[in-house]
Design a protein that fits this description.
The complex is a heterodimer of chains A (244) and B (269). By secondary structure, chain A is mainly alpha-helical. In chain A, 77% of the residues lie in helices and 0% in strands. Chain A has one domain. Chain B is α/β, with parallel strands linked by helices and 269 residues long. Chain B is globular.
Chain lengths: 244, 269
């Protein structure tokens, strides 16, 4: 436990040791604001809720979350510090979990900085706070799922750009796996139950219901199992190929 | 006695694709020994050290650190090793203080104990003046010292140093060698190097590997004795070349010819 925290602290600090944290947070808040007020027509709708804010999160995360996760392992490989890290008396669990939790906590910080919107909407009207809280939870879980995917893909390469692009593509597939754009590719040649299984992996569908305030055990299970599966895969990849 | 061995590597083999990087290396190091690990580039020195420290998994063979099997109890074995990887990689955007705290926490030290450990290595490697500087702003010599500091923070019984003096100026080399000599005694130390005089200066034992196999294992004096009497200068260079290239093989037929080359030909590094 204490060793997982040691890895967590180093990784979390690493975001703030470079301009990455500042640049990321500013861009995240700027884009979140832009989407909410312009595309989402926050004021014109005349409704006291945060729907216009949350409905763009999947798309915001599609490009911003890979920017958080791409460095996790690729940078270690490029600078050779992976040799230092993996010869310390740390287990794979410490490394994989510590890194993931640090990235997730950083995404959490970004999300927490959007709470002034919540305050604004409560000041303007009388929103359903339960719905907003559920949407925040859904957003955080979606970020976690994307981060786990990104961390795993970052372990494949020492090139951060490759890690970024791979992560965007895989997250995009997960986002839209319930929609024609992805399903058309599989239906026809794949057995119907399998196609339905792929459709059920759609991040967008699972997030949609949570952003409306519905906390369903199936959605929670979906995000939790996505995170676990990719973290296990991440550990396997690192164990299998430490040296570049 | 086998339990007295701090490092015991048996039949180490590492195959990358079709290349046999390490091909059956046995290495046994006792406390008090400083083993100089020599060999041409690509002979398998770093690969061997990476297998001993648990970074690479051997294709075959086993490693025991202070009697602990590396495969069975990797964390227990790693706890007893201090390792300076080649090029001394250190997180560039951390300050020296942050980095050493990370290492201390990763090695399960807390609070006052961690602080006193860090204090100890900071004093020993004279890092006090750069504690709050990011590592990437440091000179090569300081970076190397930070790398050494993390390797000895937990006062490990086994020290593995991959080219600890490579790229340093003569003063810095001298400092690092003095440090290694000071630490010898209770530890088993393995250091790889390209500088043959270093073996004379700090090592109690020399092992030369070539193409993944051990071709010499003995004291620096034994190594020196292998050079023909006719060779007066760069005697170790001569032996090294004859062992790893077959040029002027010892007392063999081409000795005279190579002897001339060793004395008048190839200059100093």
């Amino acid at each position: 436990m204490s060793t997982t925290i040691a890895v967590f602290r180093r990784e979390f600090g690493a975001y703030f040791n470079t301009p990455l944290a500042a640049v990321f947070l500013v861009i995240f808040l700027f884009l979140a604001g832009l989407f909410t007020f312009n595309l989402g027509a926050f004021y014109d709708r005349g409704q006291a809720d945060l729907r216009p804010f949350f409905q763009f999160h999947p798309w915001l995360y599609l490009f911003l979350v890979p920017a958080i996760s791409m460095r996790l392992w690729a940078e270690e490989r490029r600078t050779g510090t992976i040799e230092l890290l993996t010869t310390l008396p740390l287990s794979l669990r410490d490394l994989v979990l510590g890194k993931f939790l640090a990235a997730w906590a950083f995404a959490g910080v970004a999300l927490a900085l959007t709470t002034p919107l919540w305050i604004t909407v409560s000041w303007l009207g009388d929103p359903d706070h339960g719905v907003i809280a559920a949407a925040y939870l859904g957003s955080l879980l979606m970020a976690g799922a994307f981060l786990a995917i990104g961390a795993c893909l970052s372990a494949l390469t020492k090139n951060q750009v490759i890690a970024f692009v791979l992560c965007v593509v895989v997250c995009f597939l997960f986002l839209l796996s319930g929609f024609g754009i992805v399903l058309d590719f599989f239906s026809g040649w794949m057995a119907e139950p399998l196609v339905r299984a792929i459709a059920s992996l759609s991040v967008l569908t699972h997030f949609e219901s949570m952003s409306r305030g519905v906390i369903d055990a199936r959605d929670l299970l979906f995000f939790a199992s996505t995170i676990v599966v990719f973290l296990v895969l991440n550990a396997i990849l690192i164990d299998w190929k430490k040296a570049s | 006695m086998p339990d007295e061995l701090f490092i015991q590597a048996t039949g180490l083999r590492k195959v990358f694709g079709s290349i046999r990087a390490v091909d059956g290396v046995d290495l046994a190091v006792r406390p008090g020994e400083v083993l100089g690990f020599l060999g041409p580039n690509g002979a398998g020195k770093s690969t061997t050290m990476r297998m001993i420290t648990g970074f690479l998994e051997p294709t075959a063979g086993s490693v025991r650190i202070c009697g602990i099997d590396l495969e069975r109890d990797p964390l227990g074995a790693k706890q007893r090793i201090g390792y300076l990887p080649e090029g001394a990689p250190v997180y560039p955007d951390m300050t020296v203080r942050e980095f050493l705290w990370f290492i201390a926490r990763a090695r399960r030290y807390r609070g006052a104990e961690a602080a006193s450990r860090i204090d100890g290595v900071v004093r020993r490697l004279q890092l006090a003046g750069v504690l709050d500087q990011p590592v990437e702003t440091l000179s090569k010599g300081f970076k190397r010292r930070v790398g050494l500091a993390q390797a000895i923070l937990h006062d490990p019984p086994v020290l593995i140093l991959d080219e600890p003096t490579d790229g340093l100026d003569p003063n810095q080399k001298h400092e690092v060698r003095t440090l290694i000599r000071d630490m010898a005694g209770r530890k088993a130390i393995v250091l790889s190097t390209h500088i043959l005089e270093e073996v004379d200066a700090v090592c109690t034992r020399a092992v030369i590997i070539d193409r993944g196999r051990v071709v010499f294992d003995g004291t620096p004096a034994d190594l020196d004795a292998k050079a023909p009497a006719s060779v007066e200068r760069n005697r170790l260079d001569h032996v090294f070349r004859s062992l790893t290239t077959g040029e002027g093989a010892g007392r063999g037929g081409r000795a005279g010819d190579a002897g001339t080359r060793a004395t008048s030909g190839a200059g100093h590094a």
